[in-house]
Design goal:
Blueprint: H1 6-40, H2 53-76, H3 92-103, E1 108-109, E2 122-128, E3 147-151, H4 161-164, H5 167-181, E4 189-195, H6 201-212, H7 242-246, H8 251-254, H9 263-276, H10 283-292
Antiparallel strand pairs: 1-4, 2-3, 2-4
């Protein structure tokens, strides 16, 4: 087969390059138009999702478009992107991404928890919205939770929320029972809960405790103890947890002989804590903080 002359081959390559560049410019223009359309899109009601065939078609076509864009980027780039083969479970970057997503969901009333059971393990947060407890008033309605926790999956190898079980729901239900026994009105409390990839819950919980410093968490060493399940008769000489001192009502705690801290000492520590670590009033302040973390 006769080899094509070099000058003809060069001309053809230049023509192909010009065509490709024109196509790329057209693609970039379409991407820019799409970006503006997404930016301008507003849901009619936050929390309400449009129904019908059009939204379903959009979801399907958007997924296909994302795949096409990723494939095109790979073809164009001189550097191969590929997928991450190994991830580090305690990455703050992953935890921060989760915190953005987690706090972007609406809070739900804790008193209505029993009417809305759900599957999944992961991380949850409890928020105070009341006025009755003076020590907690700085938290009321804010984005700073009073408590952050995790719930491990029923199956350590779970890959779906069904396999994870109802770990989050049951843990929140357990806390609700403790609060009810202590005459804390559940109507004063809200929660967020999100199932996450099995194995990531500890890293995310640790990040969120460091971010929010919730006063009911044992790591903050102020008003800890809500997670205790009771002292046996042989350990009743242990001192009562600060949480049970602030919120008496659990029978097994009443049998404990003395407090670790007096109520006045706990309230003083809470006030000092808020002076040193101001609460995060709203999502705007929280998102700014996350972007700087």
């Amino acid at each position: 087969m006769k080899e094509e002359p070099r000058h003809l081959r060069g001309n053809r390559n230049r023509t192909m390059n010009a065509t490709n560049h024109a196509s790329l410019r057209a693609l970039l223009k379409q991407v820019e138009t799409l970006r503006h359309s997404i930016h301008d899109f507003k849901m009619p009601n936050e929390g309400a999702r449009p129904s019908g065939s059009l939204p379903r078609r959009f979801v399907a076509e958007a997924g296909a478009l994302i795949g096409d864009l990723q494939h095109t980027r790979e073809l164009i780039s001189p550097i191969h992107f590929g997928a991450i083969g190994i991830t580090l479970g305690r990455s703050d970057s992953i935890a921060k991404f989760f915190a953005f997503s987690f706090t972007n969901q609406d809070k739900r009333p804790l008193h209505a928890l029993a009417d809305a059971p759900f599957f999944g393990s992961g991380v949850y947060a409890i928020y105070y919205h009341g006025k009755k407890e003076a020590a907690y008033r700085p938290l009321s309605g804010s984005e700073t939770p009073i408590y952050v926790g995790k719930a491990d999956p029923k199956n350590p190898q779970a890959e779906t929320v069904e396999e994870q079980g109802q770990s989050l729901y049951l843990r929140l239900k357990e806390h609700s029972k403790s609060m009810s026994k202590a005459d804390l009105p559940l109507t004063d409390f809200y929660y967020r809960a999100a199932p996450i990839q099995t194995g990531m819950q500890a890293a995310v919980e640790d990040f969120m405790i460091r971010l929010f410093r919730p006063i009911w968490n044992k790591e903050i060493k102020i008003c800890f103890g809500i997670g205790k399940h009771g002292d046996s008769a042989t350990t009743r000489r242990n001192k009562r947890s600060p949480w049970d001192t602030m919120h008496p009502g659990r029978k097994w705690a009443a049998g404990t002989e003395s407090d670790q801290l007096s109520r006045r000492e706990i309230e003083k520590l809470i006030a000092e804590h808020f002076a040193k670590h101001p609460v995060i009033p709203d999502r705007d302040h929280l998102f700014k903080l996350l972007s700087l973390e």
